[in-house]
Amino acid sequence: MSGIRATRRRRQSVLRWVVVTLCMVFFAAPLAGMLDFTTKDAQGNRTGATWAKLVDVQGISRDYPDLAAGFTASVGLAVVTVVVMLVLLVPTMTWVRLRLPGLSRTVEFLCLLPLTVPAIVLVVGLTPVYSWVTYFLGESTIWLGFAYVILVLPYAYRSLDVGLRAIDVKTLSEAARSLGAGWGTVMARVVLPNLRTAVLSAAFLAVALTLGEFTIANLFSRTNLQVAMFLLGKSDAQISVAVGLASLVFAFLVLFALSFVGGRSPSRKEPS
């Protein structure tokens, strides 16, 4: 019996590594193709001129002003989206879990609803709203953050919901309140520290989605990183592909760092 179990475990291990290898090849092959394209000149010789041009910040700002503006706008959009999303979701989900548990299904439905709405339909629905946003706040690309919050709601909700289910929010909040803490202190010093991994997951998912969003910005005639890359691809395809590869690698490194930052817990000294 033990020999059969050992054989089964070996087969499962081999199958697991085969699947992982195939997935790595599937994702790495396009990246390798992008790297190969950006390191060749017109004669097919290897060169690093494209990447040297990309890391020259002053040269990029001078020669490709739309790309610099799009990158700056995407960074600002990522910050606005993350802040608005966390301010909106964390207190709401905590309050619903503590005081209005009957509304949890309704909140979940509202947060997951954007998954069923195509981006083009969302743009049509938001056009009258953004006409007023433009009238009062101006035409800055940064105000697309309000629309991006809607896009990230399903993913952020799931991340935060998993974190809230993993802790006893009611007991922790009642204990803090019994010691005289206000609701602001409860959120800042009790709930958020216990939701660190969930908050980081939601934030990084929001950043990844914001950096890769194209449809809404393009249809609203705003310039973010993806729109700038699209426009740049018409005149300099190598720089455009290099920027796309760099953004993909950056997003991968950020998500990879999450496994270390979010999973690290403060060490506790054992009592002597």
TrEMBL record:
Superkingdom of the organism of origin: Bacteria
Coiled coil spans: none
SUPFAM superfamilies for this protein: MetI-like
Annotated ranges, domain ABC transmembrane type-1: 71-258
Gene3D superfamilies: MetI-like
Main location: membrane
Keywords for this protein: Cell inner membrane, Cell membrane, Membrane, Transmembrane, Transmembrane helix, Transport
TM stretches of this protein: 14-35, 67-89, 109-130, 136-157, 197-219, 239-261
Bilayer disposition of the protein: Multi-pass membrane protein
Pfam families: BPD_transp_1
Record flagged with keyword RNA-binding: no
Location in or out of the cell: Cell inner membrane; Cell membrane
Family in the record: Belongs to the binding-protein-dependent transport system permease family.
Record's protein name: ABC transporter permease subunit
